[in-house]
Amino acid sequence: MTDATPERLILSGARLIYGTGARAVTERAVVVEGGRIGAVIPEGRHPAGATVLRLDGLTLLPGLINCHVHLCLGAEADPVRALAEDAPATTAIKAVVRARQTVEAGVTTVRDLGGRDGVALAVRDAVRAGLIPGPRVLAAARGVCMTGGHGWRFGREADGPDDVRRAVREQLKAGADVIKLFATGGVMTPGVEPGSPQLTPEEIRAAIEEAKKAGRRTAAHAQAEAGIAACVDAGITTIEHGIFLTEAIASKMAREGIALVPTLVAPEAIIAGGIAAGIPEFAVRKSEAVRGRHVESFQLALRLGVPVAAGTDAGTPLNPHGSIVPELALMVKAGMAPLAAISAATSVAARVLGLEAEIGRIAPGLAADLVAVAGTPGEQIGALADVRLVLAGGRVVLDRLGAAR
Ligand SMILES: [Zn+2]
Hints:
Layout: E1 8-12, E2 15-16, E3 28-33, E4 36-42, E5 51-54, E6 58-62, E7 64-69, H1 79-85, H2 88-104, E8 107-112, H3 119-128, E9 136-139, E10 144-145, E11 156-157, H4 161-174, E12 178-182, H5 201-213, E13 217-222, H6 225-234, E14 238-241, H7 247-256, E15 259-261, H8 265-273, H9 281-304, H10 325-333, H11 338-344, H12 347-353, E16 370-374, E17 387-392, E18 395-399
Parallel strand pairs: 1-5, 2-6, 7-8, 8-9, 10-11, 12-13, 13-14, 14-15
Antiparallel strand pairs: 1-3, 3-4, 6-16, 16-17, 17-18
Helix pairs in contact: 2-3, 4-5, 5-6, 8-9
Bound molecules: zinc ion.
The site of zinc ion has 4 residues, from loops.
């Protein structure tokens, strides 16, 4: 974190991708003042007295948004075991390091969908207070799951609508920004299957009702068809993974603006590492079983116009915190246009989080969360990985402008 960041900064010479899905533009400079984007102005008409940063040959975009991370998990081969073995203070220190890696990769906002001991909430507050470098964090505190269901090893187990209500209220009391539900089985918990429903429709309705009363949005880990449908019917904000999506459910999501956060990279990383990397056999087997269906569901969502927001599930096996590019690359590989993938990690993600007036686009008045990369990510999504400059709230958190272009 550089306290030497000038009060008024002009970012000049870059191609601009506004984050709206529109093509890159040139001959425009971005004025940053007071932590916000002050204006987008024609090149050559820079106001006097401002510090000019030359970004020639680079592309400037809104800071990227990762809608699904777990700051408490460290992408070890068996991260849930690592979490269980660490003292809470150790988990907190590691989460601080992961937050820094994240923002330095150009990801200036994350939604943390479940941890323990209030760690993600504390990281959120520390970043906000300027104590540590990191992305803006929206945190779910603990995810709510059924007894013995997916996520039980660090979630809040709850059974029956009344207990689920109480579990949600506990997260709200702890300061959660968003409520996370584990609606179905998943890959990372032994003895549960991705295709099985878990929380009942009544429990899901109760949870979402409590969240809505408090003005909070909701996210559901939902892989099985019945679980996805129950969440969509109950008015969930986002479906995470969505592996067994159907045409009827996807159509309803498109109509109601319910977003899919596919997290394609999570099972890919498990399969790539495999048992050889020390990943538990059950996780590898289940990931292999659902991989094809997962990609098909993503493609179905694209075809039917479901809003897609980018999220990596960072922290799961061999799926590290930091760059969101591996996920965007898989989305592009499965048929999404690079500019649309960028929108999924900027303006669409911001809308999904309810922060469209604050982040997700290069537009006057928004927070000066900005990232400059080498090359043309609107054509080659991989270019997003070559990060040269990151501003978070107008402060320079990474400056590699001296690196060879
Ligand atoms: Zn997750």
